[in-house]
UniProtKB/TrEMBL annotation:
Keyword DNA-binding among UniProt keywords: no
InterPro entries associated with the record: Transptr_NO3_Nar2
GO cellular component terms, semicolon-separated: plasma membrane
Species whose genome carries this gene: Marchantia polymorpha subsp. ruderalis
Protein name: High-affinity nitrate transporter
């Protein structure tokens, strides 16, 4: 009986430990302070206001501890800050009727920011990165969010851009295919003209020989 009671206590302890671990691992977005200022800029060959092309254009992203946090916070506010994780996030307009992009306050269930851009070491002076928009990014309206991580990789703060960017998806056709198609089309037209001219010459010769 004592052995059975011991096993029950052990199982109970494991269940309690698992529950505490789950609660500790759960991070709610609504509880995170907004301590970073984040800006982005589109780099493209043909400037277009807020418009970028997947696979071609680049995003320049800059982040820094915002002035409000620096002034209002006590020294050591960012003592636990280790890294900054930059993510591309769907804007609310691109989440409508799309469950796979749905926002959730529990960051483990949140699908808003599914595209990782970069992870950088935290510094109060800030940092920046240039990211080429990958070909697999769907066409949608986006913003950039930066999560501050502690030594355990847990989100402890954040910041995000105020402006929105629209990304056009890749068309699926490579430029070389278009060039090849144009060459083939020109060759086909040239061949057709050549054969028509040849047939015309043969017709004239046939008419001349009959006369």
């Amino acid at each position: 009986m004592a052995a059975a009671m011991g096993q029950s206590l052990l199982c109970g302890a494991w269940v309690l430990f698992a529950l505490l671990s789950f609660v500790d691992a759960t991070v709610l977005f609504s509880t995170l302070p907004r301590t970073l200022a984040v800006e982005d800029e589109i780099q493209n060959q043909v400037p277009a206001m807020g418009l970028a092309k997947a696979g071609d254009d680049h995003l320049v992203i800059r982040w820094v501890l915002n002035a409000t946090a620096q002034e209002a916070a006590a020294p050591g506010l960012d003592a636990s800050y280790e890294k900054v994780s930059l993510k591309l996030c769907y804007a609310p307009v691109s989440q409508v009727e799309r469950g796979w992009r749905k926002k959730n306050d529990d960051l483990h269930k949140d699908k808003t920011c599914s595209k990782a851009i970069a992870t950088q070491k935290y510094t109060s002076q800030g940092n920046s990165t240039v990211w080429r928009i990958t070909k697999d990014v769907p066409g949608a309206v986006y913003f950039v969010r930066a999560y501050v991580l502690n030594s355990n990789g847990t989100q402890v703060a954040y910041g995000q851009t105020r402006n929105l960017i629209t990304i056009e998806p890749i068309s699926g056709r490579h430029a070389s295919i278009d060039v090849a198609a144009a060459i083939f089309s020109a060759f086909s037209v040239g061949s057709l003209i050549f054969f028509l001219a040849l047939e015309n010459m043969r017709g004239r010769r046939s008419s001349g020989s009959k006369e």
